[in-house]
Design brief:
Blueprint lengths: L4 H8 L16 E5 L2 E4 L4 E4 L2 H4 L8 H13 L11 H10 L9 E5 L2 H18 L7 E5 L8 H5 L17 E4 L7 H11 L3 E6 L3 E2 L5 E2 L2 H13 L3 E5 L23 E4 L11 E5 L1 H5 L20 H15 L1 H21 L5 E7 L2 E6 L11 H11 L2 E2 L6 E4 L7 H17 L1
Parallel strand pairs: 3-15, 5-6, 5-7, 7-10, 10-11
Antiparallel strand pairs: 1-2, 2-3, 4-12, 8-9, 11-12, 13-14, 14-16
Bound molecules: pyridoxal-5'-phosphate.
The site of pyridoxal-5'-phosphate (PLP) has 14 residues, from α5.
Length: 424
């Protein structure tokens, strides 16, 4: 008898973030459309987490599909050193003016982690090129997540994910998220460390993987301003927050000062295929212009600026910039706000918080409040059983939907959360 897809998978695949001894079954998905995923067994799931935060326009969007197919038939790939192409240049031309401040250059790579690696290397080499190589330290937030490659892991908060590699990670100065109580102390810390600091990397407004932790733009403003006074470069990791997620096109639009560098990925291609972008301003770019070849940024990936990924990104921008998507983002933001008031203070919830289209609910736990909390699996399975894909971060349940999610489906998700609050 033929093996099922699930059985075949269980013989040959090693899944991400998954203990492969007796894992929960992996659901075979055969098709996607809008906010829905369809399994082999014919079950329909509402994708309430945009398939790991990438799928901002829903699945199999016809406009992106059309542009990708067209690009595939025209030019699928070309080496990006010594050569260039229209989709890469066009995407940079469209993206740079959309970013806060004066971003000058686009550097392409493959995913969020590589976008972060490039940003870190830009900052470290910036100081080396300036003859101030002693500025080697990086400042980051506790609980930050910037990716899973070694550099990105190093600037991420220390956690169970990084533990096996702890000794191999480079030294980073970690600070708490800013609030009214600690902001002055954090500014003093930056000033105190400044002569050693190359850069400060942060997720603006929302720390995603850290548990959808949210903080105020005004305090981030103060941190960036302090960095600027001390010549410390600043990197906004907008890999998750970019492209409308926080209610603004980029989260940094909420700031009154602009970072030097941006990292983009996830929603960039509308979730169609992997691509990463690191942008920088003139200050950073000019530090690499020299007759001295050693001042070159020697970094690149085989698939740098892949034309098909660029075409997908351009198509995704078309959709994002049409009034309907912006209206959907506002609609979801407003409805989250109303629902938040309804469940705020519920005895089973330790906290409810919202930024734009992200709504996070932190469940009370009796024992460990960690990522390994058993409430996680119970919530995950409960929502799956009700046809909703949610993937809690430990005890933090959250909605991070494709913008096409209908009011009807949003209501159904809210109703299911209410019943989960009764039953779990
Ligand atoms: C997901 C994420 C990354 C890493 O992106 P990958 O494409 O998964 O490597 C980096 N930074 C932030 C803020 C992220 O959410």
């Amino acid at each position: 008898m033929d093996m099922s897809l699930q059985e075949r998978d269980s013989r040959v695949i090693w899944h991400p973030f998954t203990q492969m001894k007796d894992p929960l079954p992996h659901i075979p998905v055969v098709r996607g459309e809008g906010a829905y995923l369809y399994s082999e067994a014919g079950t329909r799931y509402i994708d309430a987490v945009s398939s790991w935060w990438v799928n901002i326009h829903g699945h199999a969007h016809p406009h992106i599909a059309e542009k990708v197919a067209e690009q595939l038939r025209t030019l699928e790939h070309v080496i990006f050193a010594g050569f260039t192409h229209e989709p890469a240049v066009r995407l940079a031309e469209r993206l740079l003016p959309l970013l806060p401040g004066k971003q000058e250059r686009v550097f392409y790579s493959d995913n969020g982690s590589t976008a972060v690696e490039v940003a870190i290397k830009m900052c470290l080499q910036y100081w080396a090129n300036k003859g101030k190589g002693q500025r080697k330290k990086i400042l980051a937030f506790n609980h930050a997540y910037h990716g899973d490659t070694f550099g990105a892991m190093s600037v991420s908060g220390r956690s169970i994910f990084t533990q096996p590699f702890a000794e191999m990670l480079f030294d980073v100065e970690f600070i708490d998220l800013p609030d009214a109580g600690n902001i002055e102390q954090l500014k003093s810390t930056i000033k105190y460390l400044s002569t050693d600091l190359a850069c400060f990397i942060f997720e603006p407004l929302v720390l995603g993987s850290g548990g959808m932790l949210m903080y105020e733009a005004a305090y981030l403003d103060e941190l960036i301003r302090t960095c600027r006074q001390q010549d410390v470069l600043t990197i906004a990791d907008e890999v998750m927050t970019g492209f409308g997620r926080t209610g603004r096109f980029f989260a940094c639009e909420a700031l009154s000062v602009e970072p030097d560098i941006f990292c983009l990925s996830k929603g960039l291609t509308g979730g169609t295929m992997p691509m990463g972008i690191t942008t920088c301003n003139t200050r950073v770019f000019e530090a690499f212009l020299s007759d001295d070849k050693l001042k070159t940024l020697y970094h690149g990936h085989s698939f740098t600026a892949n034309p098909v990924a660029c075409a997908a990104s351009l198509a995704s921008l078309d959709i994002l910039l049409n009034g309907r998507t912006l209206e959907n983002i506002r609609r979801i933001t407003d409805r989250h706000r109303v629902f938040m008031q309804e469940i705020k203070g519920h005895p089973k919830l330790k906290d409810v918080r919202q930024t734009g289209t992200i709504l996070a609910m932190e469940w009370q736990t009796s024992g460990a409040t960690s990522y390994l909390s058993d409430i996680r699996d119970r919530l995950y399975n409960y929502f799956l059983a009700n046809g909703i894909l949610m993937r809690p971060l430990g005890n933090v349940l959250y909605i991070l939907p494709p913008y096409v999610l209908s009011d009807e489906d949003l209501d159904y998700i809210y109703q299911t959360i209410l019943s989960a609050l009764k039953e779990i």
